[in-house]
TrEMBL record:
Principal place of residence: membrane
Keywords: Membrane, Transmembrane, Transmembrane helix
Membrane topology according to the record: Multi-pass membrane protein
Domain of life: Bacteria
Transmembrane segments: 6-25, 46-63, 69-94
Protein location: Membrane
Taxonomic source organism: Thermobifida fusca TM51
UniProt-recorded name of the protein: DUF4870 domain-containing protein
UniProt xrefs under InterPro entries: MamF_MmsF
Transcription keyword on record: no
Amino acid sequence: MIAHLVGIVFACVGWLPALLVYLAVKNRSPWTRHHAAEALNFQLTLFIPYVVGAGLFVGFGFFTPDLAWIGAVVIVVVWLDCLVFGTMAAMAAARDAWYRYPIAIHLVK
């Protein structure tokens, strides 16, 4: 459950704590491995739009400061996505249910 919630707190670098949780619990059971891998995949997927949003924020902020808000909006939308889906996954883990993120690229099996 902690692997799902850690991305909400750490936002852009949420993949790092999720990776640590995955490495720590991957050999415990298929259920814990599944949830840790799902959390890691989701955080790695979200890292891409976080980088794009940061690039837009810095790029627009440097060249056209009036448009820097576009990058900030992208970052906020991605974080809200993380909040909603991370909470849903944590609730599923608390109920001992299997959960798959609907928008995750499955890099880790």
